[in-house]
Design a protein that fits this description.
The chain is an alpha+beta fold and 350 residues long. It is 33% helix and 33% strand. The protein contains 10 helices and 19 strands. Strands 1, 2, 3, 4, 5, 6, 7 and 8 form an 8-stranded mixed sheet that branches. Strands 9, 10, 11, 12, 13, 17, 18 and 19 form an 8-stranded mixed sheet that branches. The longest helix has 23 residues. The N terminus is likely disordered.
């Protein structure tokens, strides 16, 4: 099968998913939830209860009752022709396949020319999927995480286009009216540092995904449920966390999911301009905060965008106006309290 035939097959799979979703009725509770984000209504419909439960736990502050349907995202099980999960919105389709070598994703936004897909070496995608497909299970942590992650990206894609904003994999807080973005790979301590900064007087925007409004050059509050690893919870003995939120397990261990205002009342901030972009790079006995090249920080931010289909060149242009205003630093974390003090003193002196 040549590349053109592979693309034609992919397009048929997508058409099959779209037709099945059109014919599916998930309009009754509990198959449907509605949310309001920055004045936009988003309706999530699914035949997979674990997905609805995940979104309720993560976006509980945005959940609304008795709203008319808005932008609809459907998450359905199907086989087009292979067993997969489909995430379908009015302008995007994502098909997720589970194979012996991992998860494979076909995504389409707009017309056929916008299809993105992954191939295994010289093998056509159809051959890979036919030989190695596996069934999804709601009880499998890996299956749940990949589905939830892609569904989030579809949601963020829509919000990005409608509100002209970008979602970054970064925590965000503010000191006064000066916004601070905290970036870094998973496990570098963004959430933990954000909580300590709030404990020391900062306002909360997000601990994992930050929303930057481009026309206003502002960070918008995006208060998802706070997620703290078991070890991080123990770092706050003076904070009343015990018995609050709920505990969940995944492939990386136990986490506690909390609403930030259950432990720090009235801590969610107001929109403000970002002033600092700080990349967490590692850990040491003593915390160190050093200036970072703005170009490298910008490229790191582009790589952390929460989008399914993206044009890096366009994103660089969009973010460059934001980064013109930012002071960029790299942070090696040490003692948690001292690390937070280092960040706050930087902002105070700016």
């Amino acid at each position: 099968m040549n590349n053109l035939e592979s693309i034609a097959s992919i397009y048929q799979y997508i058409q099959g998913a779209e037709l099945m979703a059109i014919g599916s009725d998930y309009s009754s509770s509990p198959c449907r939830d509605t949310y309001r984000f920055y004045g936009l209504t988003v309706t999530l419909e699914s035949d997979t209860p674990v997905v609805l439960s995940f979104f309720r736990s993560l976006y509980s502050r945005f959940l609304v009752q008795d709203e008319s349907p808005g932008y609809v995202i459907k998450i359905v099980k199907g086989g087009f022709p292979y067993s997969c999960l489909a995430i379908i919105s009015q302008d995007m389709v994502c098909l997720i396949y589970k194979t012996r070598s991992g998860y494979w994703i076909i995504s389409k936004q707009g017309d056929l020319s916008r299809i993105n897909t992954l191939l295994a070496g010289d093998k056509p995608l159809e051959s890979v999927l036919a030989e190695t497909r596996r069934d999804f299970s709601e009880d499998n942590p890996g299956d749940r995480e990949i589905l939830q992650a892609i569904a989030q990206l579809v949601l963020h894609n829509y919000l990005s286009r409608q509100k002209h904003c970008l979602f970054l994999h970064a925590a965000s807080v503010s000191w006064g009216n000066r916004g601070i973005l905290l970036s870094g790979y998973t496990g570098r301590g963004k959430s933990t540092l954000a909580v300590e900064l709030i404990r020391q007087g900062c306002s909360f925007f997000s601990d994992d995904v930050s929303c930057v409004n481009l026309p206003a050059t502002e960070i918008l509050p995006f208060p998802l449920v706070l997620s703290l690893r078991e070890g991080a919870v123990r770092l706050f003995p003076d904070v009343a966390i015990a018995g609050k939120g709920r505990e969940v397990s995944n492939g990386q261990g136990k986490k506690r999911l909390l609403d930030i205002e259950d432990i720090f009342p009235a801590s969610i901030g107001e929109p403000c301009q970002p002033h600092y972009y700080i990349t967490l790079t590692g850990f040491a006995d003593n915390a160190r905060l050093t200036p970072a090249p703005k170009r490298e920080a910008l490229w790191e931010a582009v790589r952390s965008l929460h989008l399914i289909i993206d044009d890096p060149g366009y994103s660089i242009m969009e973010l460059s106006a934001v980064f013109d205003r930012l002071d960029c630093y790299e942070l090696v974390a040490g003692d948690l309290s001292q690390t937070a003090e280092l960040v706050i003193n930087l902002v105070k002196s700016g």
